[in-house]
TrEMBL record:
PROSITE patterns: CYTOSOL_AP (PS00631)
Domain Cytosol aminopeptidase residue range list: 349-356
EC number, as in UniProt: 3.4.11.1, 3.4.11.10
Lineage: Bacteria, Pseudomonadati, Pseudomonadota, Gammaproteobacteria, Oceanospirillales
GO molecular function: manganese ion binding; metalloaminopeptidase activity
Keyword Hydrolase among UniProt keywords: yes
Residues engaged in binding Mn(2+) 1: D274, D351, E353
Protein name: Probable cytosol aminopeptidase
Keyword line: Aminopeptidase, Cytoplasm, Hydrolase, Manganese, Metal-binding, Protease
Major subcellular site: cytoplasm
One BP term from GO: proteolysis
């Protein structure tokens, strides 16, 4: 999405459509009030007569507005002023952008940066506006023989009333565009069927990102022979039942001025299809197990955003990719495998495979002497039971890291919730025959899964994000969400800011 920022009088803005947010039962925003005066109180009369209900998310197209430079205006309800906070603002944005994509126009102007939100500046509002625009124009119909006509909207101009906010709005719009495109990349990878998006396909996507990065991204792909030589038997064990070969994908971004600066590492679970293996899942809903690589997809989306933003920090992105299938070579319940770390694991359930690929990836991350490691995985159904589909589950061995991720989630409005990782839960993983079992029973399933991973993250600050409830939608809206690309990108941007402060650059 192309964008620009203007401080022009909105009444004189020449555009195919001018998007105007309005409150329900309250005064008009200053910029909208100017437009109301210029249009002979068109907007005020529509509200007073009840021709437009400014309830949250309602939209109404006005095809002709006398006295304005715009060909048409689009009214968007913000709901009650007192209740218009971040969630309402984003809902109104989404409604507005969806409505815009249905119009036969290629550009529009919007005044959302003028909506007052406590604690949110023009950077944040512009960022969320462009993110919403990118989400709205997204389509996944490449497998339909007759896809619907793609939206024509290609440019959005942000009208800013205060000239001092213009640089901030430009900064925010650039961030929003980059993050929005990263989110859409994640959505596409998630939405692709398992017969297309395989471990080898993910490896090819990494190589493509490297080629297009102009040297900013170094890519290494470890195949099964390399993983065997390395001793990554836990990762390999998951893919034994599949004809699709397992891959460990490593992408290194070096943006810090000091090449020796410790990198921040993101690790994604890339189970491109999960049948459950020998512990076979029920048939109902199994089609959605193509989304079990949501963690990997979010890492790829974050890489795309990072390459566009170019933050001054070092980062390593690791994806453990495999397909979990049941055949004669598949790992069986009761099998004991050896991890890259050297610990042995009794596999009690082959459907708890995500932790088996992640544990070797976490051990592999040690070689980078990381400043922090965050893994992202659609790991447990228990996370959905605990948190529904609103918040990502967060567990960590480092309280400062956990707070940094929570703060990043609040800034990005891609929120997480901190769950305990107490030692008392660890004993649920005791095994009679190996160093630990891969499951700890039904109680506290999300926590014990993180406890398992924590055994392989004892040499660095580490956090685990369980996105089982946030990575995709089911039902009529079935599809990948792109979460938590916003959170992850913001986390890295915050680390860049921290480094600049420490180095005296800010």
């Amino acid at each position: 999405m192309e964008f620009s920022v203007q401080t022009t009088n909105p009444a004189k803005a020449e555009t195919a459509c001018l998007v105007l947010p309005v409150y329900k039962g309250s005064d008009l925003l200053p910029s909208v009030a100017k437009l109301d005066d210029a249009s002979e109180r068109l907007i005020g009369q529509l509200l007073e007569r009840g021709d437009f209900d400014a309830a949250l998310g309602n939209t109404q197209l006005v095809p002709f507005a006398p006295g304005l430079g715009a060909d048409r205006i689009l009214l968007v309800g913000l709901g009650e002023r007192a209740k218009c906070q971040e969630a309402a603002f984003i809902k109104a944005l989404d409604a507005a952008m969806v409505a815009l994509t249905k119009l036969p126009i290629d550009e529009a102007n919007a005044t959302f940066t003028d909506v007052p939100l406590e604690g949110r500046d023009a950077v944040w509002k512009a960022r969320k506006t462009l993110e919403a625009a990118e989400r709205a124009i997204y389509r996944f119909d490449q497998f339909k023989s007759s896809p619907a006509k793609a939206p024509s909207l290609a440019k959005l101009t942000l009208i800013v009333s205060d000239a001092s906010d213009a640089p901030l709005a430009k900064q925010g719009a650039a961030l929003g565009t980059a993050i929005g495109q990263g989110i859409n990349f994640t959505r596409t990878l998630g939405n692709l069927p398992g017969n297309v998006c395989t471990p080898r396909y993910l490896a090819e996507q990494a190589e493509a990102l490297g080629r297009d990065s102009q040297g900013a991204l170094d890519v290494e792909i470890l195949d099964e022979a390399a993983l065997e030589a390395l001793g990554a038997y836990s990762l390999l064990s998951v893919g034994r039942g599949s004809v699709e070969p397992t891959r460990l994908i490593v992408m290194k971004y070096q943006g810090a001025e000091n090449p020796e600066e410790a990198p921040h590492v993101l690790v994604g679970k890339g189970i491109t299809f999960d049948t459950g293996g020998i512990s076979l899942k029920p048939g109902e809903g199994m089609d959605e197990m193509k989304f079990d690589m949501g963690g990997a997809a979010s890492v790829f989306g974050t890489v795309k955003a990072v390459l566009a933003i170019k933050p001054k920090l070092n980062a390593v992105f690791i994806v453990a990719a495999a397909e979990n299938m049941p055949d004669g070579a598949a790992t069986k319940p009761g099998d004991i495998i050896k991890t890259l770390k050297g610990l042995t694991v009794e596999v009690l359930n082959t459907d708890a495979e995500g932790r088996l690929v992640l544990c070797d990836a976490l051990t592999y991350a040690e070689r980078f002497t990381p400043a922090s490691v965050v893994d992202i995985a659609t790991l447990t159904g228990a996370a959905i039971i605990a948190l529904g589909h609103h918040a990502t589950g967060l567990l960590s061995n480092d309280d400062d890291l956990a707070l940094d991720l929570l703060d990043a989630g609040e800034t990005a409005w891609d929120r997480a919730w901190h769950l305990p990782l107490w030692d008392e839960y660890q004993e649920q993983l005791d095994s009679n025959f190996a160093d630990l079992a891969n499951i700890g029973g039904r109680p506290a399933g999300t926590i014990t899964a993180a406890c398992f991973l924590s055994r392989f993250a004892d040499h660095f600050p580490w956090a685990h994000l369980d996105i089982a409830g946030t990575a995709w939608h089911s039902g009529k809206q079935k599809g990948a969400t792109g979460r938590p690309v916003g959170l992850l990108t913001q986390y890295l941007l915050d680390r860049e800011a921290d480094a600049q402060v420490e180095n005296g650059d800010a």
